[in-house]
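Why run this: before we spend reagent on co-expression, it is cheaper to look at a predicted model of the complex and decide which construct boundaries make sense. The entries below are exactly what would go into the expression plan.
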Amino acid sequence: MKILESLKNRRSHYDIHKDIPVQEEKVFDLIKEATELVPDAFNMKSSRLVVVTGAKQDELWDNIDKVFEGKVPREKIESFRNGYGTILYFYDNDVVKGVQEQFPLYADNFPKWANQSVGMLQLTIWSGLKELDIGASLQHYNPVIDDMVKKMFDVPESWILNAQMPFGGIGSHPDAKPSEDISLRVKFAQ
Ligand SMILES: Cc1cc2nc3c(=O)[nH]c(=O)nc-3n(C[C@H](O)[C@H](O)[C@H](O)COP(=O)(O)O)c2cc1C
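The model came back. Tokens follow.
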């Protein structure tokens, strides 16, 4: 699929379920390949992912519910728990610190660049999943869930959680988006 077509098809899918139309391996391959292909400032390769499926998927969302002590409506938690899996996105702050020492002139920029790169990866995987007819959305229960996630998946202390992407088979599709006057946001200069 061409990139604009792929981007047009990507949406926030909140109505997801556990039946996916492809073998799990295809999803895992997409995630691995995207992680290898998405660029990173100074090629620092700071993004880290944990792909949660199976019993751990249910456990993750039950734990998020517990950490929020009921402050997130249970039906919202259920909507994400209903998915096939959740991709947890991090960047490794040890990598960031390493390049900060190496290139002190840009030190302040590296955490921003690490976040930008993990954002690029999210869009790539989000769009790629939709190409496989799998719906996803992007959630941010961090930093409240950081300690629980670190413990649950035994991730290094230096991994900083950036986002959670629940994904699964598509129940219903979101409404079409209204068109916008893009000239308000894009200028051309010659
Ligand atoms: C950086 C970023 C953060 C977002 N955070 C959330 C979030 O925490 N929860 C959520 O439901 N959607 C989140 N979204 C989804 C946006 O609200 C959504 O992409 C936007 O409204 C456009 O809708 P669409 O995804 O269907 O095109 C986020 C999107 C981006 C790019």
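Helices lie at 3-9, 24-37, 54-67, 74-81, 93-102, 109-131, 146-153. The domain at 3-171 is CATH 3.40.109.10 (NADH Oxidase). Bring this page to Monday's planning discussion.
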